[in-house]
């Protein structure tokens, strides 16, 4: 029987296709923004921190609003509100106003996450893992498209702001579409979760412990975001400064990274839950990322960089979404609130990492930024191993 929420999922995936563009749009247009805003590359990195600040400001409230008023209102509002950022940044006359627009983008991101993930989990039930991983597929496709779009504008001497205006127009249409689309009844789903929790003796060997697996998954929300965010933010700069690549070619490295992400999440959507467990992916992927990052900083030639970029994209895609799904397996009630806690950790990475890596790139060089990412991969592996141990202890 056809799932009644396919239309909803389509609209949500379009939103995250556009978010994939937004995730790399500042770093991809870094050279243009430094001129427009009369600042340096590190300051553009701080705009990414502003997005994290916006996410952090809204997440606690957004999760509660999602549980109280439903998933649809937050998603629709976020779709329309993203226009402020996408139209505002290319027209911003100064850095302060651009910073405000970046905070608004973070608020939108928070609302969209708090509505989207619970809606997909509630709408697709046993296939929730695949449904949420496809969010990452949508993000990857957007991140593949935008560098080529920007390169086209560069080659034709066109205004870089078109790379912002086109996603803005699509967000407008997506918001209208989602406002007319059915979402799951979140109250009924929460009641079902309450009933399941009351019958947890049939599911759990022992009660989940928030301060163990819950906290570990929240930290994975941080580390999994750092793994891909550092690459998205600094890979073009690495290509230019460490490899001496031309600007357009260095930006295209993000596309190779995103192609790897797309291949990964399509694969996960097929095999996850059938042939491989989510917990296994959470261990194996950071290990592949660790090896790929080592190759990136060791072999300084364009071909090796392209291969490493692809493998990093392959191995960092979907970990965050899987962590969200596993979090709702352990803690079934108030999905909007529990997923918001993982998202808060991700928001902290958006605030802290651009600040830290911006300073590191200035004082220690661009390679030091990727050494930090290697350390984060090691932490991710250790946390995932612990969650896997707890998973076997908790579930039948």
TrEMBL record:
Pfam annotation, one family: MFS_1
Mode of membrane association: Multi-pass membrane protein
Gene Ontology cellular-component terms listed: plasma membrane
UniProt xrefs under SUPFAM superfamilies: MFS general substrate transporter (SSF103473)
Domain Major facilitator superfamily (MFS) profile residue range list: 8-392
Annotated signal peptide: none
Keyword Transmembrane among UniProt keywords: yes
Entry GO MF terms: transmembrane transporter activity
Membrane-traversing stretches: 12-37, 43-62, 74-92, 98-121, 133-154, 160-183, 214-234, 254-272, 279-300, 306-328, 340-360, 366-389
Cellular compartment(s): Cell membrane
Record keyword Membrane present: yes
UniProt keyword annotations, A-Z: Membrane, Transmembrane, Transmembrane helix, Transport
Domain of life: Bacteria
Gene3D superfamilies: MFS general substrate transporter like domains
Family: Belongs to the major facilitator superfamily.
Name this protein carries in UniProt: MFS transporter
């Amino acid at each position: 029987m056809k799932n009644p929420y396919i239309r909803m999922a389509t609209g949500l995936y379009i939103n995250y296709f556009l978010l994939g563009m937004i995730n790399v749009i500042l770093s991809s247009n870094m050279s243009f923004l430094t001129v427009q805003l009369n600042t340096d590359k590190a300051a553009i990195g701080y705009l990414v921190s502003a997005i994290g600040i916006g996410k952090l400001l809204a997440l606690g409230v957004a999760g509660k609003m999602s549980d109280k008023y439903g998933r649809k209102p937050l998603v629709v509002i976020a779709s329309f509100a993203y226009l402020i950022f996408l139209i505002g940044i290319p027209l911003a006359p100064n850095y302060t106003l651009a910073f405000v627009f970046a905070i608004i983008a973070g608020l939108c991101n928070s609302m969209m996450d708090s509505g989207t993930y619970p809606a997909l989990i509630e709408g697709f039930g046993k296939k929730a893992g695949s449904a949420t991983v496809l969010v990452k597929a949508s993000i990857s496709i957007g991140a593949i498209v935008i560098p080529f779009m920007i390169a086209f504008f560069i080659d034709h001497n066109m205004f870089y702001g078109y790379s912002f205006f086109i996603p803005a127009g699509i967000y407008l249409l997506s918001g209208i579409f989602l406002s007319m689309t059915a979402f799951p009844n979140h109250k009924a789903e929460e009641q079902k979760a309450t009933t399941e929790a009351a019958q947890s003796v049939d599911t759990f060997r022992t009660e989940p412990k928030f301060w163990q697996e819950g906290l570990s998954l929240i930290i994975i929300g941080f580390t999994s975001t750092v793994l891909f965010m550092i690459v998205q933010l600094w890979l073009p700069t690495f290509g230019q400064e460490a490899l001496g690549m031309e600007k357009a070619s260095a930006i295209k490295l993000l596309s190779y990274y995103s192609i790897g992400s797309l291949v990964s999440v399509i694969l996960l959507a097929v095999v996850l839950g059938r042939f491989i467990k989510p917990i296994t992916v959470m261990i194996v992927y950071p290990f592949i990322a660790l090896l790929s990052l080592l190759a990136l900083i060791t072999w300084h030639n364009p071909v090796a960089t392209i291969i490493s970029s692809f493998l990093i994209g392959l191995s960092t895609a979907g970990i965050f979404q899987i962590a969200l799904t596993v979090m709702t397996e352990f803690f079934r009630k108030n999905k909007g609130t529990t997923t918001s806690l993982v998202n808060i950790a991700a928001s902290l990475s958006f605030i802290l990492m651009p600040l830290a890596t911006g300073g590191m790139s200035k004082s220690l060089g661009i390679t030091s930024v990727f050494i930090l990412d290697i350390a984060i991969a090691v932490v991710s592996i250790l946390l995932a191993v612990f969650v896997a141990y707890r998973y076997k202890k908790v579930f039948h």
